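Researcher: Sit down with what I've pasted below and flag anything odd:
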Amino acid sequence: MMNDATRAQVRAADPAGSTWLSANAGSGKTRVLIDRVARLLLQGTEPQRILCLTYTKAAASEMQNRLFTRLGEWAMLPEPKLHDALADLGITGSIDAGALASARRLFARAIETP
């Protein structure tokens, strides 16, 4: 069951709308941004069309590592756990075998993108 903060993070991660993130360190801002990028990728956005700006190279590296870790996990998760992971991300509607297969392929697509 999601608490109000988690629900707000899921809404902020929805790429269908604009959002402004401002919060204390350790509050989940980077996770929300990674969730948003993951949802863009799941919707079919080409990785090279996504631009993420950070203040430091270290922050950019951290975001990339977290995204690759997430996508790598998706490639290996059993179907029921992958289904739950996509639902927790805020994916609505039917999460069918095609959606699961697409999520599994994202890791390869992302690492092949310069």
